[in-house]
Design a protein that fits this description.
The complex is a heterodimer of chains A (329) and B (259). In chain A, strand 2 and strand 3 form a beta hairpin. With 329 residues, chain A is an alpha/beta fold. Chain A is 27% helix and 28% strand. Chain A has a 9-stranded mixed sheet, sandwiched between helices. Chain A has 2 domains: 182 residues, Rossmann fold, CATH 3.40.50; 122 residues, TPP-binding domain (Rossmann fold), CATH 3.40.50. Chain B is of the alpha/beta class. Chain B is built from 6 helices and 13 strands. In chain B, helix 2 crosses helix 5 and helix 3 crosses helix 4. Chain B starts with a strand and ends in a 5-residue tail after the last helix. The chains are: A alpha/beta (329), B alpha/beta (259).
Chain lengths: 329, 259
């Protein structure tokens, strides 16, 4: 990447007037890559009545905050977002567009990039500037391997980073100008008609405050075996949670699910039983202070982030742990 | 309704992966394969839609001859016809290239609906469906949990983050990416397997689809792949179950100080 040329445009996601916390991670990535390559950093927000969100971002170190205020963008739609974003790219001509790999970004960024003849280099977990190249690291085979990838086509390049790759709270403070940027969107171009967002889980369990969590995954095999893990959680005085397949099968309620579609937790102890550690699960728990993994597959990705690992048969180890915990109480 | 469901053949989940000599992908010899997990739910969603509103389900896969196993499995589960996309030029494509080929096939077949899984278990791009929609010029929705057909429109339930959901309506033709676990998969019956033998598989290459090489040119390149460096040093605890249990709890108490 040639120094000084182009500039970096960071996408700030706003939902119901609030900045998605993950967007600070993208902004932090922008600050770091900008400093390393001598490029200016700008951010862009889309919506209606989101001045407060723009002001919040403008209190960080960056050049410009582009505020796109349009009634057609009041509720997120892929069509509206792509149409607006294309115009902002046309006006600001960035060399690099950075995003956090949220569900919303997954919904529109591939379309945005493709509409400009580009491809999104998505869900990256690291970067390295190498001469003219931006080398990005992506997980493949569900985290069992990683790949170093470079965008090769014309700029702008589109890159999204996995949540947790950068620390949003490390964003440098500063003062940026807020620029009102207008776009033209014909409401008829927006094909998706969204209804109200809603939550399904009624009696929501708040796992985010639990200091100790025992979590169960697919390795448990059958619903009746969940009891084994429940007993362990009780013996340790811990909350019981699960990975997605367990909740999909209704073996435990949805409000006990950890991961990108469930809750994000950072307890003192996270004990993962029979969880292989798909990326979508890891993003929900990798902030835990101490991670223990029990799994029969020594190559399971969960061991990449575990402090303590036990490779073996959970049906033997879990009852032994329960007995030991009861003895120590 | 004519539905195309895109099925990717991926190495089995428990495969031992070895890096190839060039260091750019895995060795494909000695691997066994399966249908990508979320694609299986897309297939089931397609079969259930057909049962509800009628029409035809086409099972599509892109790749060398071995991917016909995937197509045959889908035909045995109830898909009506197979579409095999194979050409030397289709090797090693990025998400843009794969989506361009599939979009050309969907156009040729005049499909009303294209379903994909949400993400592949190998590359994990999570982009192919969305790019297909862009190439076809039709609307899309991602991470779909439920589908209702309302005349010329669909009403779909999307999964959002942090336990939220949202119903979205969009016009047909459309592309949806399907979340894993949204339905109960059916498996092939003996009758289904027998019936599948009589079902047709159409084979399309770049020329049949009118695709030129520059349309498929890669927009990103894999420099190398490798086993990730561990961010943490894991202490593995060994012994009999009772010994392991005692040691772990001792370490959690005195070393990690979590109790």
């Amino acid at each position: 990447m040639a120094n000084g040329e182009g500039g970096i445009l960071v996408y700030i996601e706003v939902t119901e007037g609030r900045v998605n916390r993950a967007s600070y991670e993208a902004l932090r990535a922008g600050q770091l890559i900008g400093a390393e390559t001598g490029q200016e950093v700008a951010a862009v927000l889309f919506g209606q009545g989101i001045e407060a969100a723009a002001a919040e971002i403008a209190a960080r170190q960056l050049q410009t905050v582009h505020l796109v205020n349009d009634a057609a963008l009041a509720s997120y739609t892929a069509d509206g977002m792509v149409r607006a974003f294309q115009q902002v790219i046309g006006q600001t001509k960035p060399a690099l567009v950075l995003l956090s790999h949220t569900y919303e970004v997954r919904d529109f960024a591939p379309k945005l990039a493709a509409s400009l003849g580009r491809v999104l280099t998505g869900d990256c977990i690291g970067y390295r500037v190498d001469g003219q190249d931006l080398v990005l690291t992506r997980q493949i085979f569900q985290g069992k391997m990683v790949a170093d990838v470079v965008p090769t086509g014309e700029k702008p390049w589109f890159v999204s980073f996995q949540i947790g790759t950068f620390r949003g709270d490390e964003c440098e403070a500063g003062t940026a100008a807020v620029a009102l940027t207008s776009v033209t969107i014909d409401a008829g171009e927006i094909r998706q008609k969204p209804e109200q967002r809603f939550k399904e889980a009624k009696a929501a369990v708040d796992l985010t405050q639990a200091p100790l969590i025992v979590s169960v995954g697919r390795g448990i095999k059958e619903q009746k075996n969940i009891e084994l893990v429940r007993k362990l959680s009780e013996a340790l005085g811990a909350e019981l949670s699960a990975s997605r397949p367990i909740c999909d099968n209704d073996w435990l309620p949805m409000d006990r699910q950890i991961g990108s579609s469930g809750q994000t937790v950072s307890p003192k102890l996270y004990l993962a039983v029979g969880i292989s550690g798909a990326i979508q699960h890891l993003v929900g728990m990798k902030g835990a202070r101490t991670i223990v993994a029990i799994n029969r597959d020594k190559d399971a990705p969960i061991f990449e982030i575990a402090d303590y690992g036990i490779v073996g048969d959970l049906f033997e180890i879990v009852p032994a742990l329960t007995a030991e915990a009861e003895k120590n109480r | 309704m004519k539905i195309i469901v895109c099925l990717k053949q991926v190495p089995k989940n428990d495969s031992v992966l070895r890096v190839n000599d060039e260091g750019t992908w895995i060795q494909d010899r000695d691997l066994s394969y399966e249908i990508n997990e979320s694609d299986q739910y897309a297939l089931e969603a397609a079969l259930q839609l057909k049962e509800k509103v009628g029409g035809e389900v086409l099972a599509l896969s892109l790749g060398p001859a071995r991917v016909q196993t995937v197509i045959k499995e889908a035909l045995a589960r109830g898909a009506d016809r197979g579409v095999h996309l194979d050409d030397e030029a289709f090797k090693g494509l990025d998400a843009y290239g794969v989506a361009t080929v599939i979009a050309a096939a969907a156009k040729k077949e005049e499909a009303a609906l294209v379903l994909t899984g949400l993400q592949s278990d190998d590359h994990g791009y999570a982009q192919t469906g969305v790019i297909i929609a862009e190439q076809l010029g039709v609307a899309h929705a991602t991470i779909v949990m439920d589908v209702e057909v309302q005349e010329a429109r669909l009403r779909v339930k999307r999964e959002l983050e942090s336990g939220y959901f949202q119903w979205v309506s969009l016009p047909l033709p459309a592309v949806l990416t399907i979340q894993s676990g949204i339905n109960t998969l059916r498996y092939a019956t003996l009758k289904g397997i027998m019936a599948a033998k009589k079902k047709e598989i159409s084979h399309y290459d770049a020329a049949t689809l009118g695709l030129a090489a520059d349309q498929l040119a890669p927009r990103q390149k894999i420099l190398r792949i490798y086993v990730p460096q561990k961010s943490k040093q894991t202490q593995f605890i060994e012994g009999t179950p009772a010994e392991v249990a005692a040691r772990l709890l001792e370490k959690l108490k005195n070393e990690a100080r979590v109790f």
